[in-house]
Amino acid sequence: MQRRLLPLTLACTLLAATGSGWAQSVALAGLLGSKALIVVNGSQPRSLAVGETYQGVKLVSLQDNRAEVDVGGVRQTLRLGGAPASVGNTASNVNGSKIVLSADSRGHFVTQGQINGQATTMMIDTGASYVSLSAAQARQIGLNYRNGTVGALSTANGVVQSWRVKLDTLRVGEVTLYGIEALVSDGAMPYVLLGNNFLGRFQMNRNNDQMVLDRRY
C-alpha cells in the first residue's frame, strides 16, 4: 500500500462578502493507496476515494501526485505538498471595501492573502501593533526586509532583531491596502499577523464565529 504524508498547512475559509458567494481552502496532504488525504479549512485530514465528498469538497479524480476536486461546481487541481487552494465562488464585494471571515475550530481568524503579489497565510491578531512576519516568511515571499529600519523586538523568548519595512501591497479577499508598514523579526511565526495598523483601517464587528471588516480608509 502506498503511503505518503507531508506536513499539513493550516488554512481557513474566507467567506465572500456579498450574496451567497463562498470558498473553501483545500489542500492535498497525502496519498493513502487509492485515496487522497484532503485538508479542508485547516481540519484534520480526511481520506476520500474518487466520487466521495467531505464538507462540500468532492474528489473528482486522483492521478500521480495530483487530485482534482469540485466545490460548488468549481474545479481545482491540487498538488501533493502544494499550498492550500481557495476553491469555490471567491467573488467578494466588488468595491473592495469589506472582508468577511469565519473562525476556525480554535476560534482564530486565519485566511489566505497576498503580500506584494505573493500568497501567504495570515491571521488576525489584535495583540500585534503592526502587520508582523518572520524573517523566514519574508524570504519566502521575496521581501527584501534587510533594507528596512533595524530595531529590536521583545518576545516571550527574549529580545530579537527586527526590521520595519513598507509593503507595496497587502491583499485580503478583494481588499488591497497600499504602502502599509510591517515588522519583520527573527522569531518564528506560523502565520503573517494582521496587527492593529491593518485592523485600524477597518470597522471591525464580530458575531459569534464570524468577523466583518468594513474598510474606513
CATH superfamily of the largest domain: Acid Proteases
* Whole-number total of structural domains: 2
Which second-level CATH architecture of the largest domain applies?
Beta Barrel
Strand element count = 20
Please count the helical segments. 2
CATH class of the largest domain: Mainly Beta
Instruction: Quote the distance from N terminus to C terminus.
Output: 55 Å
Specify the biggest β-sheet: 7 strands, mixed
- Over all CA atoms, what is the radius of gyration? 18 Å
Structural class: mainly beta
SSE topology string: EEEEEEEEEEEEEEHEEEEHEE
Strand content: over 45%
Multimeric status of the protein = single chain
Overall form: globular
CATH topology of the largest domain: Cathepsin D, subunit A, domain 1
Fraction of residues in H or I helices:
under 10%
Mean pLDDT, all residues: 81
Unreliable segments (pLDDT under 50, ≥5 consecutive)?
A: 1-22, 89-95
